[in-house]
Amino acid sequence: MAERLQKILANSGLGSRREVEGWIADGQIKRNGQVATLGERAVLGDDLVIKGRFYKVSADDRQTRRVLVYHKPLGEVTTRDDPERRPTVFDKLPRLHHGRWIAVGRLDLNTLGLLLLTNDGELANALMHPSGGFERQYAVRVNGRVDDALLDRLRTGVELEDGPARFERLMEEPGPTEGANRWFRVSVREGRNRLVRRLWESQDLQVSRLIRTRYGPIAMPRWLARGKVQELSAEEIAALSRAARLDEKPADKLRIVAVHPRQKRRAARRRR
Predict the structure, then answer these.
(1) 3-state DSSP assignment of residue 95
(2) 264 is in which domain, residue-wise?
(3) pLDDT of res. 261
(4) What is the CATH number of the domain that holds 143?
(5) Are residues 41 and 159 in the same domain?
(6) Do residues 45 and 137 share a domain?
(7) Considering its fold, how many domains does the chain have in total?
(8) Do 36 and 84 fall within a single domain?
(9) Using CA atoms, how far apart are residues 5 and 14, in angstroms rounded to an integer?
(10) From CA 135, how far away is CA 125, in angstroms rounded?
(11) Same domain, 179 and 90
(12) How far apart are CA 272 and CA 267, in angstroms?
């Protein structure tokens, strides 16, 4: 069994494939004593040094695909290590015996609502990849004057600094319209940074509240309180895997296990 190094590390929850590829390009990863290169494959038993820490490539035949729904509150960042020491979405998650929770996309500091997390890097990548076309649905409160011509432009498409974009769905929520704030239900199929906010801002409107309510086939449970977690059932995970065009049961994969430097020295002495 041989797999690309960046895939093994991403599946182990060490980072996204893009992050791992950056580490490889920067020469921060060694395989069997040699600096690794992009596209390089690793096999069972290979020794790795990743950013100064020792690991060994191992078989992961115990992998059970797990998915969490987290109701993200305001003020939490979707990152594992925040230099400003702000609360992160990973602080309250259940502990994994091996591997790490991987966030499916990101929600910024001032966005709340549904965030999916999984221990399976392959599933996370499939859900985030543009080819999957997974729809992200939001409830959004907009401050400013909105007319039909403006809504038509957002449905048809506008030019942003990183290319054209539009809302796949856009409808106003029922309720009074006399005030400065109006609620809309919108959806996009891309994970570009701050896309929903930037679409409204392109029309000189301010988003005062943004809540993600659905990601693909998974909707936020109405009873799930902010800051709380709900784990999907096996049947729900199987349906999500099918939607991502993956086998319902993950195939055996390679993963990495940490090796203490003392164990490394002992192994070297035995080889001598």
Answers:
(1) coil
(2) 2-61+252-271
(3) 63
(4) 3.30.2350.10
(5) no
(6) no
(7) 2
(8) no
(9) 12
(10) 15
(11) yes
(12) 9
From CA 41, how far away is CA 8, in angstroms rounded? 9
Quick check: 253 pLDDT over 90? no
pLDDT of residue 58: 83
User: Is 26 in the same domain as 87?
Assistant: no
| 139 and 74 within one domain | yes
Q: 159-172, pLDDT tens digit by residue? A: 999 999 999 999 99
pTM of the model: 0.72
Residue 108 is a catalytic residue: yes
The string of pLDDT tens digits covering residues 195-224 is 999 999 999 999 999 999 999 999 999 999
Is residue 1 scored above 80 in pLDDT? no
Nearest alpha carbon to residue 153 among 210, 199, 207? 199
| Residue 85, phi-psi category: left (phi > 0), alpha (psi -120 to 50), beta (remainder) | left
Tokens of 140: 């959004």
Which residue in 46, 91, 108, 147 is the catalytic one?
A: 108
Q: Identity (one letter) of the amino acid at 127?
A: L
Phi-psi region of 8 (alpha: psi -120 to 50; beta: other; left: phi over 0): alpha
Q: In this structure, what are the phi and psi dihedrals at residue 243, rounded to the nearest 5 degrees?
A: -65, -30
